[in-house]
Amino acid sequence: MTTSEIQFDVPADPVVEGPVLQVEDLHVSFPSEAGRVQAVRGLSYHVSPGEVLGIVGESGSGKSVSSLAVMGLLPSSARITGSIKFQGRELIGRGDSELSKIRGRRISMVFQDPLSALTPVYTVGDQIAEAILVHRKGAVSKAAAAKRAVELLDLVGIPNAAERAKAFPHEFSGGMRQRAVIAMAIANDPDLIIADEPTTALDVTVQAQVLQLLETAQEVTGAGIVIITHDLGVVAGFADRLMVMYAGRAVEKGKVDEIYQQPRMPYTLGLLGSIPRLDVGEKQALVPITGQPPSLTDLPPGCPFAPRCPMVVDACHTAEPPLIEVDGSDEHHAACIRTGEIAATDAEGAEAAAEIFGAEVVEEPEIAKVPREQRDIVLGLDHVVKEYAVNKGVVFKRRVGTVHAVAGITFDIREGETLGLVGESGCGKTTTLMEILGLEKPMGGEISVLGTNVSSLDSKRRFEIRRDMSVVFQDPMASLDPRLTINDVIAEPMQVHGYSKDAINRRVPELMRLVGLRPEQLSRYPGEFSGGQRQRIGIARALALEPKLVVLDEPVSALDVSIQAGVINLLEELKSKLGLAYLFVAHDLSVVRHIADRVAVMYLGKIVEIGEVDSVFDAPRHPYTQALLSAIPIPDPVKERQRERILLTGDLPSPANPPSGCRFRTRCFLHASLPPEKQRTCIELEPPREVQAPDHEAACHFAQIRQVL
Amino acid sequence: MAGFLLRRLVNYVVLALVATFLAFTLASATFDPIGVLQQRNPPPPAASIEAKKRDLHLDQPIPQRFVTWMSGVVQGDFGRTITDRPITDELGRRIGVSLRLFLLGITIGILFGVLLGVVSAIRQYKFSDYFATLFSFILLSTPVFVLGTLLKMGAQGINDSIGSNVLIFVGEETPGFQGNWFEHLGDRLQHLIVPTLTIALGQIAYYSRYQRSSMLDVLGSDFLRTAQAKGLTRRKALFKHGLRTALIPMATLFAFGFGLLVVGGTFTERIFGWFGMGDWLVTGISAQDTNITATVTLFVAVCVLFSGWLADVLYAALDPRIRVN
């Protein structure tokens, strides 16, 4: 083994006929204080060699537990029955040492959170080499394994792999760590790769890179892939077959195209209908699925989805429906006694969902009919700058650099309008938000709220003006004080602003009704509510003082898809009813397209493109916007397979040392394709924001329209 | 990194000086060695009292006395005791006695404490975990002098049943013992076993609780699952990836535990008649001896600050995330 052409797979894998993985009637249960949790209840599926199976479901649906059961990685308290056959061999009942010979060698796994998936105290290269050494002890030398680790890192697209292999995990970005985990997963040329929400924690541009990499990994290894996700968009273009899980069971499975076009189970319909679509220009009716997934400790008889189902009839409560063949296809199965009626509706996919769930398009507010120029400016930012000093030294601090978090941004929001602020993490979205909420004089530029320049405010005026502006935070779990009752939570802003007791007692129940909660629940604590309900409480608190502007910091990104739609609908209704203006910060461009009137795209502390939402999404001018949009998966398998992805290379540069000229040029595909003299323009001159179309500006020297949807 | 540690070391020297100065001032201001002298019966002649005052520099203001004492310390002279014996002579011997007792006790305590904590964590809510928890809580709530006395009684029982004095629990060696170096070693070991056990048991109980909780944090972590997914057996993943990471927060505890115990072991030294540093502090205070008190305080300060420094070094060695350039 002296050449670099090390071939590890000398003995060919035995060719096994039939599926790689065959799961039959799998049950998994865990003990809990409330009784046994039946996490997986009679699950059957198979994966053929080279096939991609997508498993879709909300949190708690049993999708991850069933995969961990395949890996043999469930805690010892789990009770597992049924059959898991891998290449014809039964895995249930095998001991840890036997399973460890299969794990990482024939079945490997990619986990959700790349930030914590690597051991912090060993180098990345060592951890990849370990995956090889543990299965080929004696056959492969340490040096050969280390060399192979570098090759694998190179294969998964880590630049400068030999050098980076010596780095520790904390020196890698999230996307790079996920690449390293994938390198580990393909190190031994496995026959099955299980990817458990592999892109959930990543930015959209990185998500696209990782999905592409998984496709490459499949081509290299020829393995079957199980990809688990809650996002129907992610699997549309990648999976061959799909299985939808609910309450520990498969409720629908079949070929990807069939399920997206002819879903035959109301839950699948709801899921499809609840996703805002990036490629739909006109206002779309979002389907909220009301209620909560059932508790898995004590399921009542009947269909577990019945309490949330719009098509429920008495028969649904008598017995749990089995998976039956639908549409005469032996591949497509659904667990619903009314599939025939669903099949009879004319509409397809998401439209059928809107019809069945009775979702309606939220009406535009009155004020939207007034032309934009004639409305008042609620919030105005003019060349706002925020910089952080980078200091060194313990006793005598000296400044060694500056982080240009926000480098002069300008935008305004008018009455009754929603501006979506989008960009990758680290682009300065949150800093901008904090600058606005702080109501202090910015380091550079000007911020004005309702026509008042904030730098001229004294503390009394500043306090008064806070009434007109409120905020809803991302994490509904962390943003409510667990020791206050809901009544106290909602009443607090009014107490601070000196409302009378009577006024508060009248207003609080009113606010509860406004956000779709029952006033009887006011004496409860936040812990007793679900994520979606808590976010509604957060919204009620934000509305308490009748603000004109609400700042929404990723308000739906922590929620499950079915819940997310309900909160988005609520926000739209409130805007229409109360004439609010929103600053909506998000990384999910589909949600932004659905809810926003205008959108601003940020990159490294600058706005690169801003304008009316349809104009920006349908005819993006800036290469970064084009790349962002092209990275968002569309929940439509046919469209998705035809789309051409623009993959951005690498990660966001450090804002402490931004590139000269155009800040995006280091990752820009357009810049790379330009002749050298034009490239010099990008390097030397910072592109100004120029009008491209009515209410549409972009900051690129060579802006041109490119259709990406 | 080396520069960082060096700067830390300089800071520590200043801190040690401040601590010693405070102890010296406090002792000088409250002790009244002349009063003790005057109450002797028959009272010593006035001339010798005056001479004693001069010897002890009691005619000087306290800060000046400190400077006088410190300038001796810098040259390796820690002054004289009230009974006019050079402190420096005794210092080395006493440090040796303390270190012999505590280094062994702490090493055993750390090793078995970590082991017990890990086993407890892995077998959480099983019999062995409950047993370890009970064992730890009983030991942690037992005062050292009770534990020491109980162990003495136990050792006596063992000696009686064997019919020979195998476990010796008074002093650190048999006075006037004759024999070659090997026999000397055996004699010292016989003296060491019971006091070491007294220290080690408490340390095991203490460290096992912390190790258990730090290991539990790691047990649910994603990287442990990744290690198993690669094909490591659970046991191997637990030790190579789990324990290695769970040891990081323990580094500070280990280091400071050592620093504090060297003097915190006063009871143990007194119970077993070992003339170490802890014993000396008590002797010094009861004799109203400023020099002994200040010397022991300086030693404690150096121990604690060295531990802090050691914790930094250990941290950097264990955790690549905090290695700074």
The CATH topology of the domain at 21-239 in chain A is what?
Rossmann fold
Shape of chain A: globular
The CATH architecture of the domain at 94-288 in chain B comes to Orthogonal Bundle
What low-confidence regions of chain A span 5 or more consecutive residues with pLDDT below 50? 1-12
CATH-assigned fold name of the domain at 94-288 in chain B: MetI-like fold
The helix fraction of chain A, in percent, is: 25-40%
What is the C-level CATH assignment of the domain at 21-239 in chain A?
A: Alpha Beta
Secondary structure category of chain A: alpha/beta
Number of DSSP helices of chain A? 24
By DSSP, the count of extended strands of chain A is 24
Largest sheet of chain B: none
Strands side by side in the biggest sheet of chain A: 6-7-8-3-9-10-12-11
Largest interface (CB < 8 Å):
A-B, 33 and 23 residues
Range of strand content of chain A: 15-25%
Which key features would you list for this structure?
heterodimer; A: 709 residues; alpha/beta; Rossmann fold; 8-stranded mixed β-sheet; disordered N terminus; B: 325 residues; mainly alpha; MetI-like fold; 76% helix; globular
Walk me through what this model shows.
The complex is a heterodimer of chains A (709) and B (325). Chain A has 709 residues and is α/β, with parallel strands linked by helices. Among the domains of chain A are: 21-239, Rossmann fold, CATH 3.40.50; 260-357, no CATH class; 609-709, no CATH class. In chain A, 32% of the residues lie in helices and 22% in strands. Chain A contains 24 helices and 24 strands. In chain A, the strands form four sheets. An eight-stranded mixed sheet of chain A has the order 6-7-8-3-9-10-12-11, sandwiched between helices. In chain A, strands 18-19-20-15-21-22-24-23 form an eight-stranded mixed sheet, sandwiched between helices. In chain A, strands 2-1-4-5 form a four-stranded antiparallel sheet, covered by helices on one side. In chain A, helix 3 (124-133) crosses helix 4. Chain A is globular, with a radius of gyration of 27 Å. Mean pLDDT of chain A is 88; it is low at 1-12. With 325 residues, chain B is an all-alpha fold. Chain B has a domain at 94-288: MetI-like (MetI-like fold, Orthogonal Bundle). Chain B contains 14 helices and no strands. In chain B, helix 1 runs antiparallel to helix 14 (290-318), helix 5 packs across helix 11 and helix 11 runs antiparallel to helix 14 (290-318). The longest helix of chain B has 39 residues, at 181-219. Chain B is globular and about 85 Å long. The model of chain B has no long low-confidence stretch (mean pLDDT 87). The interface between A and B is medium-sized, with 33 and 23 residues. Chain A: Pfam families: ABC_tran (PF00005), oligo_HPY (PF08352). Chain A: Belongs to the ABC transporter superfamily. Chain A: InterPro entries: AAA+_ATPase, ABC_transp_ATP-bind, ABC_transporter-like_ATP-bd, ABC_transporter-like_CS, Oligopep_ABC_C, P-loop_NTPase. Chain A: Residues 21-272, 390-629 form the ABC transporter domain. Chain A: Keywords: ATP-binding, Nucleotide-binding, Transport.
